[in-house]
Write a structure and sequence with these properties.
mainly alpha; two-stranded antiparallel sheet
Amino acid sequence: MQTINNSFNERISVFPKFVIIFLALIGCIITINQVFNFGIFNFYPVSNSFLYLLIAFFQPISFLIFPFSKSSKNKILISDILAAISIFLIGIYFSINSENILSNGWDIDAPLLPTILSLILIVLSLESLRRTGGIIIFFIALFFSLYPIFADHMPGALWGNMYTFKEAARAHSMGLDSLIGIPMRVAGSLLIGFLVYGIILAETGGGKFFINIAESLMGKYRGGPAKVAILASGFFGMLSGSPTSNVITSGSLTIPAMKKAGYSGRYAAAIEACASTGGVLMPPVMGTVAFIMASFLNLPYAEILLAALIPGAIFYIALIIQTDLYAAKNKLLGMNAKDIPQLYPTLINGFPFIISFVSLVWLIVSAKLESEAPFIASILLVFILLLINFNKIKLNQWLNIIVKIGEIIARIVSLLSGIGVIIGAMSLTGVGTSLSRELVFLAGGDLFMILTFGAIASLVLGIGMTVSACYIFLAIVLAPAIIQGGIDPLAAHLYVLYWGVLSFITPPVAIAAITASSISKTSALKTGFLSMRLGSILFFLPILFVFDSSMLMQGNTTDILMAVLIAIFAIIIISASFEGYIYKLGNINKIIRVIFFISGVLILLPNLTSKYIGLIILIITTILLLLTKLKNK
C-alpha cells in the first residue's frame, strides 16, 4: 500500500480528521444518490439544491486542510473553523431554499437574509479558491466577481451590462451561470466520481503497479528509466489533472532514476515536466478538462475521449522517440535486469487494478455510463481488494484514503466554483461574446490570423492558471471565434486547450519545468527551454487536427491510419534534428539537422504539396548523407 501524503498531519488532529471524514463520506453519498438517482430516504434534490450541498460538504474541508497563510500551516485557526461552519450552513440554507431561488427569482431580487448570505458565500468561495488555487487565479476571480459593477464604464469590447453590488452578489451566488454554473455541474455529474476512483486506485497500490508495468515494458531498453518516467508520469498526470503536483509526486522518483542511468539533470527534469504536462491531454481522464469540454459542446464524454486519443498518443510517442535517440547518441543502457519487475507476476499481482480500469473504460465507451462508471469501478476495486487483502489493508488506511478524497474534492470544488464566478461575470455582462466578436473583427475574418491570435492568447492566458481554469476561460472567449472561422467545434476546443497547456513547459513561466528543475537541481530557465524543445510537437499538433479531422478519429480508417503513420514518420525526422542523431546513420551535423527539421515540418503540415516537398528534400539529403558516410568509411 502506498503511503498517503500526510503534508497536513501536523495541522489536522484527531477531531478535525473525523470531521473531514464525515463531510467527505456524506458528500460522496449525496453525489452517488444524485448520479444513480437512488432516492435514498426519498431524497431527490433538484439540480441547484444538489450543487449547494456539494459546496456545503466539500468546501469546509478546504478551510480545515489548507492554511490561511504559511505562518498557520501547522494549526487550525478559530477563523478557519468559523469559515468552515459558515460555508457549511450557508450551503445547507441555499439547498433547502433551492425551489424558492428558482421559482421566486432570488437571483434577481431576494429578501435581505439570502442577499447577505450571497455576499458571504462569494467571499468564502473566493477565499477557498485562494487557499487551493493560489494568488493569481484568486485575483482573476476577484476581478471578475466585481466586473459587473463597473462593466458599463469599460471601453469597446470590454463594455458590458451593469449590476449593483447587491445584484451582482445575488446573481453570482443564486444564479445558474456563476458559482453553481457549468464547472460545478460538471463536478457533480462526472468529475467527483473520477476523482474518487483515481485516489482509490493510486493509494491502494495502483501507482506502484503502473510504475512496475512501465519498468517491465520499457526498463530493459536503452534509456529505459526515461521511458518508464514518460509512461508512469503520463498516467498519473492524466488522473491528477495538475502538471505541477504530478511533477512533485512522480518526479521525486523518476528524475533521480534518470540521472543515475546517465541522463543529464536538465534532460531528466525536462522529460518529467513534459510527461506530466501531457497527462492532461491523454484519455480516458484528461485531468478534469474532458468532462468540462463534453458539457460545453453537449457531446458524449466518450466522443471527446476518442477525438483526443490520437493527438495525446502522438505526443507521448514523440517523447519516447526523442529519449531513445538521446540514449542511442550517448550510448545509455537500460535498467539493471535485477531491478526490472517480471511482466507476468506484475500483471498477476495487479489484476484488481487491471479489472477495474478495463471495467471503467468499457462502461464509458460501450455502456455509455459516463457518470456511473467511476463509482462502479471504484466499488469493484475495493471489493476485490477486500476479498484478497482483507487483513492487509487496515481500517486506518481506508480512513486516510477518505481524508485524501475529501482533500482532493475540496480543492477541485473550490477551484471550479471560483472559475464559475469568472464565467458568471462574462455571462452577466455579455463580455465573453463581445470579446470573441472583437477577435474575429481584428483578424479581418482571416482564419490563419484568428488561429494565430488564439494561439498567442491561449499561451499567455495559460500562465499562472490551472489547466481547467485556462480551458474554461478560452472556451468562452476564443473558441467561438475559431468556430466562426469554419473550424469544427471539437477541434476548436482542443486547439485552445493544447495552446493553454503549453504554458506549463514554455518559458518564461514554465511552472512544470521549474518545479522539475528544483528536484534535479538545475537551471530553471535552461530546463524550461529544453522542455519546450522536447514537447515541441505540441506546437504542431493543434494545427494538424484543426485542418485534418482524421487526427480526431473522424473519417475512414485508411485516412486515419495514414495520418498517424505520416505524423510519426515526421516526428522521427524532427526528433533526429533536435538530438543530432538518426537511426542507422548515427550523428549528423548542424546543417543536416536544420534540413531535417525543415523537411520534417513540411511532411507534418496538413498540406499535400508541402508533404511532397518535404519528402523530396529528405530523400535527397539522406542519399547525400549516406554517400558521405560510405566515403568516410
